[in-house]
UniProtKB/TrEMBL annotation:
This is EAL domain-containing protein. The chain holds residues 651 to 929 of 934 of the full protein. It comes from Telluria aromaticivorans. Residues 23-277 form the EAL domain.
Length: 279
């Protein structure tokens, strides 16, 4: 390629890897996906470890691509974040999750709690707090039934601004969780600056083995510290009964994972809520 024609042909340059071609194709089809109704939410139950009761669920987005079938959020959330599309997608997720959860409450006649993932880009929107307030008012979901999951990376930029924004969110009466704790570089001491209610321990954190300290002692010390800071601890990615027992012995509060329940459709979730008793 030479001169002016160069950019026109860049899609076909041999140095463009298959991975980057797929990425570009996804990026192009991601834009109209929202309008075409290709997104759907699945829900993964969250269990309280002391009594094994269902305490809520996490909303997880699914993309039903017309040609590619189900595309994993692992693949498209990063693209949505880079392009800024996550702001519109995230707005849809919040409204959809709150609408559906409110309906479940009406159906079952008891409160149902939902946790929604929020990306750093969304949190950086000046209107974000108003958006949450509006969705709560519009859907009638009680604020105490909504939790927002924020990643550590959303908390490392502009600490003062982020902290004041989180305080505003807390004033709405909702709950705030830090997602994937243990994968970033923030510490409990750092998180004290923010009004965080819940720490979600990443799967790798729980599985990580230490040479000198047993996994149990490590998790136990961590949970005690979180409790001292008034934070509840939720373990993510629990795949075996052994891990579950260890977490319970360490007084971890809640857990999510394939061993307990996989992310599921709304109608599957209905049967789980139904089976969880308490009229
Ligand atoms: P995440 O927020 O950490 O969500 C947990 C992920 O772990 C989910 O993957 C879930 O299906 C998976 N998981 C649950 N239990 C187990 C287990 O026992 N073992 C293993 N290995 N994995 C388990 P999923 O649904 O593919 O979502 C991946 C990531 O995409 C999420 O990680 C989150 O970061 C992002 N994501 C999903 N939905 C949304 C959304 O609505 N908005 C935003 N901003 N991000 C989302
Ligand atoms: Ca999450
Ligand atoms: Ca997580
Ligand atoms: Ca994760």
């Amino acid at each position: 390629a030479k001169g002016a024609g160069r950019n026109r042909y860049r899609f076909f340059e041999p140095e463009m890897t298959v991975a980057s071609q797929v990425r570009m194709a996804l990026e192009v089809s991601l834009r109209p996906a929202l309008a075409r109704g290709e997104f759907e939410l699945h829900y993964q139950p969250r269990i309280e470890l002391a009594g094994m009761a269902l305490v809520g669920m996490e909303a997880l987005i699914r993309w039903n691509h017309p040609e590619r079938g189900r595309v994993s959020p692992q693949q498209f959330i990063a693209i949505a974040e880079e392009t800024g599309l996550i702001v519109d997608i995230g707005r849809w997720v919040l409204l959809e999750a709150c609408t559906r959860t409110r309906r479940l409450m009406d159906e079952f006649g008891r409160p149902v709690a939902v946790s929604v993932n929020v990306s750093a880009r969304q949190l950086a929107q000046p209107a974000f707090v108003d958006e949450v307030r509006t969705v709560l008012a519009r859907t009638g979901l009680p604020p105490e039934c909504l939790e927002l999951e924020l990643t550590e990376s959303a908390l490392i930029e502009d600490i003062e601004h982020t902290a004041s924004m989180l305080r505003e969110l807390k004033r709405l009466g909702i709950s705030l969780a830090v997602d994937d704790f243990g994968t970033g570089f923030s510490s409990l001491a750092y998180l004290r600056r923010f009004p965080i209610d819940v720490l979600k321990l990443d799967r790798s954190f729980v599985l990580q083995q230490d040479q000198d300290v047993s996994t149990f002692d490590f998790i136990k010390a961590f949970v005690d510290m979180a409790h001292a800071l008034n934070m509840a601890v939720v373990a993510e990615g629990v795949e075996t009964g052994e891990v579950l027992d260890l977490l319970r012995a360490a007084r971890c509060d809640q857990a999510q994972g394939y061993y307990l329940a996989r992310p599921m459709t709304l109608s599957e979730l209905r049967s789980v809520i139904e089976a969880s008793g308490a009229p």
